[in-house]
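Dear support,

I submitted the protein below through the web form. The confirmation email said the job was done, but the results page showed an empty box. After a refresh the structure appeared. I'm attaching both so you can tell me whether what I see now is the final result or a partial one.
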Amino acid sequence: MTKTALIDVGGGFRSIFGAGVMDKLMDLGIAVDKCYGVSAGSANMISYISGQRGRTYTFYTQYASRKEYASADNFIKLHNYANLDYIYGTLSNSDGEYPVDYTAFAASPTKFTVVACDARNGYARYFDKSDVHQDDYDIMKASSAVPVACEPYVIDGVPYYDGGIADPIPVELAVREGYDRIVLILTHRRDFVREAKKDAAPAALLKRTYPAAAERLKNRYRTYNEEMQVAEKLASEGKVLILAPDDLCGLDTLSKTDEGLEAMYRKGLDAADAIPEFLAS
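What the results page shows now:
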């Protein structure tokens, strides 16, 4: 029997592409057996698993413009450009402006893995659905804590950074766990090759406090590129469907425009049209 999985690698504001993919999946009534979320991809997935179409779109296109959500003010006051407690707590808790439907999330048969990076040793930590509770979405905060732009997020005394440092494209994990039809959502162009220089400066800063995580960050380009090669090989074998935007619409991890967000979301909606045929093959 075919086992299906969905991977969303995140990418800050570019991740609205994945929100579009998942909203279309909800329109089509398609659920998968397991979701793997990295960084902002994990936030997209909690709304998908709970069946809340348009929820993540609202976060990107409305709430993200608030200074409480992401701003230089946040960085000065809290040492966090993105206020993860505001995003995944104040807005998302049961008394929040747009709460997660936790009851629906918990009742869904879809399994869930969230990738974070243990700041102490640079290793990947794989949280699962049992680590999510009503008004406790800490694992998404941990997975989304971009180094230098954010402080590490602490869970049970352990500091965590963005999961994209340790396992940016967890396709091999999904294969090891027995999934044979895997939809991979990227937020860079498919032909993107990560370069070392982008992570060099933040890695140098991080080295003062978390040297192992800094080393992992410095080598993220190699990890990303190697994992992408694996994904392409599996795609050529018909086991992975890669969905990626053909243009970034002016978006970056921490920068956006309203027009860019809308265009990227539409690209995600359109890209998802390939999924039904792939899952049925």
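Response: this is the final, complete result; the empty box was a page-load delay. The chain has a mean pLDDT of 96.
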